[in-house]
Amino acid sequence: MDFPVEILPALAFYMFAAITVASGFLVIFAKNPVHSVLWLILAFFSAAGLFVLMGAEFLAMLLVIVYVGAVAVLFLFVVMMLDINFEELREGALDYIPIGALIGLILLAELVTLGSAWVVGEDITRNAAAPMPSVAEVHNTEAIGQILYTDYIYAFQGAGLVLLVAMIGAIVLTHRTRTGVRRQNISAQVSRRPEDAFELVNVKSGEGVSLTPGKKG
Amino acid sequence: MVFNEVIPNLGIALPEIVMAVGALALLMVGVFSTADKAYRLVTNLAAALLLLTAILLITQVGGERQVTFGGMFVSDGFAIFTKILVLIGSGISLLMAERFLKEHNVAKFEYPVLVVLATLGMMAMISANNFLSLYIGLELQSLALYVLASINRDRNRSTEAGLKYFVLGALSSGMLLFGISYIYGFAGSIEFDVLAETLASGEASVGVIVGLVFLIAALAFKISAVPFHMWTPDVYEGAPTPVTAFFASAPKVAALALFVRVMIGAFPDMLHEWQQVVIFISIASMFVGAFLALVQTNIKRLMAYSSIGHVGFALVGLAAGTQEGITALLIYVAIYLTMTLGAFGAILSMRRGDGMVESIHDLAGLSRTNLPMALAIATFMFSLAGIPLLAGFFGKWEVFKAAVNADLVPLAIIGVLTSVVGAFYYLRVIKIMFFDDPAPAFEGGAGRTVSLVIGVTAIVNSPVSFLLISPLTVAAAWAAGSLLY
Amino acid sequence: MVDAIYSLFGTEGPFLYLTAIVLSILAVVLPLLIAVAFAVYFDRKIWAAVQMRRGPNVVGPFGLLQSFADGLKLFLKETIIPAGANKAIFLIAPMLTFTLALISWAVIPFEARVAIADLNVGILYILAISSLGVYGIIMSGWASNSRYAFLGGLRSAAQMVSYEVSIGFVLVCVLVKVGSLNMTDIVLAQEGGIWNWHFIPYLPVYVIFFISALAETNRPPFDLPEAEAELVAGYQVEYSSMAFALFFLGEYANILLMSAVMAILFLGGWDAPLPILDFIPGWIWLLVKTAFGFWLIAMVKAFVPRYRYDQLMRLGWKVFLPLSLFFVVLYSGLKVAGVPLFS
């Protein structure tokens, strides 16, 4: 198969890259916040495409599952539910453009000067050689697993604790135990037997029955 | 194919592991015990857990410097010393919280769990030997603190404090990562040991310096040093008082220790580059702490500015960059911890019929309504001001001495001058307590623990401290010595 | 699959390669769409049979052409866009749903290594695409500018995000044994007859997966996003003609996909139940197993009443999540211990 499929990845790269950058811009410039989030999702998605082209399928899929499939859904959720007039919020935002632009320019200048000053020294290449298995030997999912659970186990577990704190925090700050709410008690419902629920009474004609409420609730 | 079959040496990180597992267990205990008992039970267990961790740490005293987890985690004398201080700060502020939290309906069992997790984050920060573990420790601590600041969510001030802290904290984390990325790009590593080695050989490139500046800015935010102190007064005032007491004690120690660890551990040969920055923020903090505190009327805000000033003094020790300087910093921090815990214990006792009061003028004439308390507060204030014979004086003396010995005479002079200005507002509090017309008396204390803490810290800060200062100096010198290997 | 078609051309060239790609896509999508049409018919017939009705029986022999007639009718109707709707998103939403329902099929293997794309991370790809499916619904709910639609969209988003978690854990259970994320490898691990199939050791997680798949595809008893009694038709309420048809097709294509994934994960994919039946082509076995999965799903629709929303959430977070986590630990433990069936 010597057909020149090489051009396809290149095409795909330019397509994904262009979409990523363009939707990145549109995230900022979209008037409607819901549109912003949707553009953000598109940006994530095309970034995942770029990962695939780099041969990091696992990361690409995780990006889609975690960011697009869960995080951005919650974003969208919140943005859709909030009753905020974003036009009003934007009023006066223009006043901040000079200072924002200034900071942006300073950072850009820094990046440019540093970028031009950047040389890969001997030390750097030696230091930066991360303990990574070669791609040819193992599959990238396996490679990530191998260093994540050995060399970076401390960071991995630490990150887990950070997430736990985030979870506790979210619950502490939002959960309210409301009183006076009737809750479903599933085990009580399931364990309820006919004999607890009703009784058969043989009603003699002309006598009727006397109801004893609460006895067999 | 397995790359690294060696299981990291877990024994070195045993205190942290015990804490982490303990925190998870506490969470379970809290969830499955009845709602009204959960807080008390979990608090006591959490205090026991902190004590256990401290004991485990003490068993490590005297050991060599050891690293584990692929060099991410380091345990040395410095780490043990500061971790014990952090545990003391966390434990005491946790135990002092009970009555306040119950009265404000925020006595949830998550509170002690979050304190434990924050403390774990601080220990991870102190033991960080790699920017990755630094960042994770920092985030673990910060995230728990953000939640704690706004734990009284029904009160606008508390949520505002949490939100402000969160937004600015996120900004500083961003700066931190930005700085780290520069350092990684130009020095090629995020490991402190490798960085120290790499940077020792020759001129540091401009990229590393830029990264370093961002890094220092972010760390300055965490220790609330000027010019990154803006959040401190608002957060201290808005957060519930026991949380403020916690903020002012343990995280401060941890962040200062982290600052030292990064500067001395990763950039020992760039002393001249970072020294200027540290001197600048030290002087600025001392000035702001002294002058802005003059106009405060809220005692929590006053303590916030006071803590900014004290960070400035502590940084004098770091600016010296010598073993003597680090020793002085550690002594300073240890003494500061006792002063601040005592002062917050006193603030927690300021209650009248309709709840807590926070104005300085509520202390008026305290000497006539409650003399022991007035004396205790006076001790803290004198000590914070650095009046000779009290503990606070030793700390200041040590840092200024270290600065002079490191040829930083102007810095020491500025430090002395600002502490004179600072003394004014501490003395004002004393004047209000002893010479103003009495305000209505405070109601009964905030519980036995708080009274005990006030008593003990007052004694520790009183001239009795003469007895304690020499063992402290020995321990601090040992800790500082382990850092400069 | 693409390469096989490409080699059929005899000559080489970029356009031929592209043609081969398009042809292999068509070879999957066209039968799929026809299968969807019959799946709808099948669904209605089963439902009718359970309720002792006849179901569609007028158009064509036994009513077989009913779906096509319905489709034709929908295509001929007018597309109505509500005045307050956000037009672009309103129209993109059904297209998105439909497209996503189709592209998941790219990694489904019909025989060993016969898939449009035999991805290394095939199963993650399916999970990723199915997690994207929520956007079609939430976008349509929002863009319709109608309360019913919006509520439906929100319900659906929360529901799908919740059940994805346990689906993920179920996948982990299976992957721990197989040691690969590739769909073909998953089937190859179960080759050699019915006693090797995963549904035997993995029965509990198969059940969890099945129920989560119902929630993930908004099928009864978890069809709350379109609960007709409360929300009229949920997110679809403002849709008509083509746009509605796209939603409808997408929904059934997703159901078939979930059936196929269950067949691959737990029922041995294309593998024949007994080695002597190997002469029957694998894709027929896959078809039969998918049809079995679909039959189960259709039966559930017929005899289980709809859940209440809080019950749905409770089931997802308080029952399935801990349970599936427990099974992850259990199966990993069994694998580490080297128990034959699980490692």
Structure write-up:
Chain A: Keywords: Cell membrane, Membrane, NAD, Quinone, Transmembrane, Transmembrane helix. The complex is a heterotrimer of chains A (217), B (485) and C (343). By secondary structure, chain A is mainly alpha-helical. Chain A has helices spanning 7-29, 33-53, 57-81, 86-90, 97-117, 122-128, 140-148, 153-174, 186-191, 194-197. In chain A, helix 1 runs antiparallel to helix 2 (33-53) and helix 2 packs antiparallel against helix 3 (57-81). In chain B, the strands form two sheets. Chain B has a two-stranded antiparallel ribbon. The model of chain B has no long low-confidence stretch (mean pLDDT 87). With 343 residues, chain C is mainly α. Chain C has twelve helices and no strands. The model of chain C has no long low-confidence stretch (mean pLDDT 85). The chains are: A mainly alpha (217), B mainly alpha (485), C mainly alpha (343). Chains in contact: A-B, A-C. Chains A and C meet through helix 2 and helix 3 of A and helix 2, helix 5, helix 6 and helix 12 of C.
TL;DR?
The complex is a heterotrimer of chains A (217), B (485) and C (343). Chain A is mostly helical and 217 residues long. Chain A is 66% helix and 0% strand.
Please give the structural blueprint.
The complex is a heterotrimer of chains A (217), B (485) and C (343).
Chain A: H1 7-29, H2 33-53, H3 57-81, H4 86-90, H5 97-117, H6 122-128, H7 140-148, H8 153-174, H9 186-191, H10 194-197
Chain B: H1 14-32, H2 35-59, E1 66-68, E2 73-75, H3 77-96, H4 98-103, H5 110-126, H6 131-149, H7 156-187, H8 192-200, H9 206-222, H10 231-238, H11 241-266, H12 271-293, H13 299-320, H14 323-348, E3 351-352, E4 355-356, H15 366-369, H16 371-385, H17 391-405, H18 409-435, H19 448-461, H20 465-483
Antiparallel strand pairs in B: 1-2, 3-4
Chain C: H1 2-8, H2 14-50, H3 66-76, H4 87-103, H5 122-143, H6 147-178, H7 183-188, H8 203-216, H9 228-231, H10 241-266, H11 282-303, H12 309-337
Highlighted features:
heterotrimer, A: 217 residues, mainly alpha, elongated, B: 485 residues, two-stranded antiparallel sheet, two-stranded antiparallel ribbon, 20 helices, 75% helix, globular, NAD (chain B), NADH-quinone oxidoreductase subunit N (chain B), cell membrane (chain B), NADH dehydrogenase (ubiquinone) activity (chain B), EC 7.1.1.- (chain B)
